[in-house]
Write a structure and sequence with these properties.
two-stranded antiparallel sheet, about 10% strand, mainly alpha
């Protein structure tokens, strides 16, 4: 039971940090030509409304992974941890592919 608990530490800290209002940063321009910096939580909808989809998507996936790990911690079923690992690996691969694609498109 103690060994399974260590898998919950980082996802819970991640959810706490994502809930803070300093995660998603957006810049708006005013009439004077200066930019206004606004910060939002990953769970807030204004960044999603301004077509910044990644913070909300990251928060939802982190929440799903944390819930799966919590269920695994309570029940101890092996298939749940496999599902969580496969989901985490798939999301990491997709994020690396997307970031590489975006980086190459600006070159």
């Amino acid at each position: 039971m103690k060994k399974r608990g260590r898998f919950l530490i980082l996802p819970f800290f991640t959810l706490i940090l994502e809930a803070l209002p300093y995660g998603a940063v957006m810049y708006f321009a005013n009439m004077g030509g200066k930019s206004i910096r606004s910060t939002y939580s990953y769970f807030d909808l204004p960044p999603f409304g301004y077509a910044n989809f990644s913070p909300l998507l990251t928060a939802v996936i982190t929440g799903i992974l944390t819930a799966a790990l919590l269920i695994w911690f309570i029940l101890g079923k092996g298939w749940i941890i496999k599902l969580a690992k496969n989901t985490a690996i798939t999301c990491a691969a997709i994020s690396l592919w997307v970031s590489d694609t975006i980086r190459l498109s600006y070159c």
